[in-house]
Design brief:
Jelly Rolls, globular, six-stranded antiparallel sheet, binds ligand 1OR, phosphoprotein, four-stranded antiparallel sheet, cNMP-bd_CS, cAMP binding, cAMP, alpha+beta, RmlC-like_jellyroll, 24% strand
Length: 377
């Protein structure tokens, strides 16, 4: 990457790594003061590091901080954070970017069909009604991409937002590779949502096809609903301990994926033995978890705000291990379907598995025997 010209000052890999991590954390958290944030950040880093500092970093090539390699993650300043990306000061309700009709790009049947297919899994579009969805489809236009094309450059003003139909795209922050999209996903939403410069550079690795939407249209149709939804789930998602394993950026994507559901007192939410289609986070109220035992149901647990359930069957690929009922009034839940679960909760898998081990020891305590809730066969 560097040192072709020999007499340059060598920048130690460790320094690069630390500064990169810090920069990313800073960009994502958007705190109001750099110095205060840096003091907190590095104090926390120091407190959390293992007693022997690792001074050497032998693999000195490219640094990857992909979310999947979660131990390279910067400490997230949960407790002390002043402002999250969610809590951006910008007020979309006061937005007056609206200057008339939305652009319409005519499409052939084939194009329209491909576009519909590409946007199927776009979580950001989940909060749109049918009419808004049609406006979005009309307003998107095709962009062909060649290998090595820069689609977005870090620091630029945001122009378009992109949905991927095909192609591989690499994301870099300060020349460090942090993410890769392969034939699916979207990017370029951050600068448009939060009115800030591009947080990263996106470069095509292969040829490909993108569907673009201009800033104006994005803001007119998507901004309010997407922003509202992210805001609505911010508190919930920050209150679920397990989700601290996610980066802010990943938590925001999770907010896009959630669907609110309400249940009346006594209503069954999950039935033991059923196939599983998703999991739930509790926004408000309490639920009772009950297991069949000798023709009766025995309550094994009660869960409240900030807790989750329904993950077990998704992790083990088995039927529901218990039934779950709404108790004590209206229960408000945020539902995450199994596809989004698999896509978004990878970094939480270890924590979930640890909690599942806990179920097993409780099971022995309550029923005196191991009821086989996790064996895969
Ligand atoms: P943008 O408008 O800022 C660059 O332009 C885009 O890269 C950005 O929107 C996102 O769509 C996309 N952090 C920030 N932006 C990311 C990230 C990311 N991944 C993709 N983009 N990550 C967090 C790094 C700490 C990667 C998370 C896995
Ligand atoms: P699921 O997808 O199997 C039922 O659907 C949910 O109830 C399950 O995921 C868990 O999220 C939740 N054992 C099994 N499932 C439990 C338990 C549990 N508690 C909550 N759930 N135990 C209770 C431990 C306090 C152990 C059994 C006695």
């Amino acid at each position: 990457m560097s040192s072709e010209s020999s007499r340059r000052i060598q920048v130690p890999e460790k320094l690069k790594e630390v500064l990169l991590q810090f920069s990313i954390a800073f960009l994502v958290e958007q705190p109001p003061d750099v110095i205060d944030y840096a003091v907190e950040y590095f104090s926390k880093l120091q407190a959390e590091r293992p007693s022997v500092a690792t001074t050497e970093q032998s693999t000195d090539d490219q640094l990857s901080v992909n979310s999947q390699e979660a131990d390279a993650e910067p400490p997230v300043m949960q407790g002390t954070r002043r402002k999250s990306v969610f809590a951006e000061a910008y007020d979309p309700e006061a937005d007056d970017d609206d200057d008339g009709a939305t652009a319409v790009f005519p499409k052939t049947d084939d194009q329209r069909a491909r576009l519909v297919e590409s946007v199927k899994n776009v979580l950001l579009f989940r909060s749109l009604d049918k009419e808004q969805m049609n406006q979005v489809l009309d307003a998107m236009f095709e962009r062909k991409v060649q290998p090595l094309d820069y689609i977005i450059r870090q620091g630029d003003d945001g122009d378009n937002f992109y949905v991927i139909e095909s192609g591989i795209y690499k994301v870099y922050i300060d020349d460090n590779h942090i993410n890769t999209y392969t034939h699916t996903g979207l990017f370029g939403e951050l600068a448009l949502l939060y009115n800030m410069p591009r947080a990263a550079t996106v470069q095509a690795e292969t040829s490909g096809l993108l569907w673009a939407m201009d800033r104006q249209t994005f803001r007119r149709i998507l901004l309010k609903s997407a922003f509202r939804k992210r805001k609505m789930y911010e508190e919930l998602l920050n209150s679920v301990p397990m989700l601290k394993a996610l980066q802010n950026y990943e938590r925001m994507n999770l907010a896009d994926a959630l669907v609110s559901k309400s249940y009346e007192n006594g209503e069954r939410i999950i039935k033991q033995g059923d196939a599983a289609d998703g999991m739930y986070f509790i926004e408000e109220g309490t639920v009772s978890v009950r297991m069949d035992q000798d023709d009766a149901e025995v309550e094994i647990s009660q869960l409240g705000k900030g807790q989750y359930f329904g993950e077990l069957a998704l992790v083990t690929h088995r039927p529901r291990a218990a039934s779950v009922y709404a108790t004590g009034g209206i229960v408000k839940l945020a539902f995450l379907d199994v596809k989004a679960f698999e896509r978004l909760l990878g970094p939480c898998m270890d924590i979930m598995k640890r909690n599942i081990d806990d179920y097993e020891s409780q099971l022995v305590k309550i029923f005196g025997s191991k009821n086989n809730i996790t064996d895969t066969r």
